[in-house]
Specification:
36% of the residues lie in helices and 18% in strands. The protein is an alpha/beta fold and 402 residues long. The structure holds pyridoxal-5'-phosphate.
Length: 402
């Protein structure tokens, strides 16, 4: 995210300067609304970057988390954690997969998926396993996941990169088939079902079906990063379900805990037994508080019909934006699925972030010129209309003033 420089002079921070932050500090929230420390109110079109599935201070989530904090926040993976069983069972039921490993972030889920792919290869006698990754991809900022990421800004200064990745363009089946014919070391295909940070670029559903067939033929793992697009955001539990495919490995994180840090690697039959005792671990992963947040998030989503809401209100929001911006020179495309929406402009538009905040709307700008909306899944039709009413004039004004 590129926030504009602020002219205001501020004291030297003790927090490392890794984000271009806006000079706004949020104090509390309720539903899809947040308030800053000066009492200014914002409509939350960002949801903490697709994290706050249930919005803020959800009346069903808060007491459940309070209950859990009063019982047990953390123990250790030396012991059985029944809530892990409960959440894994639920995720398997929803995805048709067979088992889950829990961690705390998206990059950690992806890092684990990459380890599974490499070990899957080694188990089959491939000494130097390679993984197909994509142009435009974002998978995280650890050394391995930034190597799998395509953004040169994410990689710059952190070489040498991890080897063992082959990069192809998205939605180009011939490119993957070419790798299949020429590279016997490939063990897995790894992609976001819908690219998020790369600018909201969906995989075509027929492309995913072809990839599934190719992976079956080649005995490769199909690994779908659903860290951003999963957990109901597109109107199905997982975005790949629109294509009718089932992956072998599915990393999850962002929306799974409604704000409590959590990640998961959900595995199908080909991947579920690749890791054994001693192969992988994490101190925080799977702790009772995070697991309770996951269990309750999924329960409340079901109870309150939030996937149907994401599909319906997402349709209203993207429809409203398309209508309000139709024919506006400089708007390239409004695209996405459900409540994962990108508005691509023909020029960098980082300044929109501050202007939207001034106008009382939280959003993000990704890939320099894509305005991204990933609000809580509880967004109402009225709130969607308010987003359009605030954002469309800002975009028109931005594009009109050179
Ligand atoms: C955000 C994101 C990640 C990284 O998640 P972190 O929790 O920030 O490590 C990985 N993959 C995708 C698709 C993401 O959107």
């Amino acid at each position: 995210m590129n926030a504009p420089e602020t002219t205001q002079s501020r004291p030297m921070p003790h927090v490392l300067n890794t984000y271009g932050r806006l000079p706004i500090a949020l104090a509390h929230g309720r539903g899809c609304w947040v308030w800053d420390t000066h009492g200014k109110k914002y409509l939350d079109g960002l949801g903490g970057i697709a994290v706050n599935t249930l919005g803020h201070a959800h009346p069903k989530l808060v007491p459940a988390l309070q209950d859990q904090i009063g019982k047990l926040i953390h123990c250790s993976n030396y012991y059985e954690v029944p809530l892990q069983e409960q959440l894994a069972t639920k995720l398997c039921e929803l995805s048709g997969l067979s088992g889950a490993f829990f961690c705390s972030t998206g990059l950690e889920a992806n890092e684990g998926a990459l380890k599974i792919a490499r070990k899957y290869g080694h188990d089959r006698g491939i000494e130097r396993p390679e993984i197909i990754v994509y142009e435009g991809a974002f998978h995280g900022r650890s050394i391995a996941t930034l190597s799998a990421t395509a953004n040169p800004k994410v990689q710059a200064g952190f070489g040498p990169l991890v080897e063992g990745f082959v990069r192809v363009p998205l939605n180009d089946l011939a490119a993957v088939e070419h790798v299949a014919r020429t590279n016997p070391n490939v063990v897995a295909v790894f992609l976001e079902t819908i690219q998020g940070e790369g600018g909201i670029h969906p995989s075509r559903w027929d492309y995913l079906r072809s990839l599934r067939a190719l992976c079956d033929r080649q005995e490769w793992l199909l690994m779908l990063d659903e860290v951003q697009c999963g957990i109901g955001r597109t109107g199905k539990w997982f975005a790949h379900q629109w294509a009718g495919v089932v992956p072998d490995v599915m990393p999850l994180a962002k929306g799974l805990g409604s704000g409590v840090p959590i990640g998961a690697i959900v595995c199908g039959p080909k991947a579920v037994n690749v890791l054994g005792p001693g192969n992988h671990g994490t101190t925080f992963g799977g702790n009772p508080l995070a697991m309770r947040a996951g269990v309750e998030t999924l329960r409340i989503m079901e109870e309150d019909g939030l996937m149907a809401n994401a599909a319906h209100v997402g349709g209203l929001l993207s429809g409203g934006l398309k209508q309000a911006l139709s024919g506006v020179a400089g708007v390239v495309e409004v695209r996405g699925a459900g409540l994962m929406i990108g508005i691509e402009l023909d020029r960098p538009c980082g300044v929109i972030l501050q202007r939207a905040a001034d106008a009382g709307l939280m959003l993000s700008v990704t890939a320099d010129r894509v305005i991204r909306l990933v609000p809580p899944l509880i967004l109402s039709a009225d709130e969607a209309a308010q987003i359009v009413a605030i954002l469309a004039p800002l975009v028109r004004e931005f594009l009109a003033t050179p």
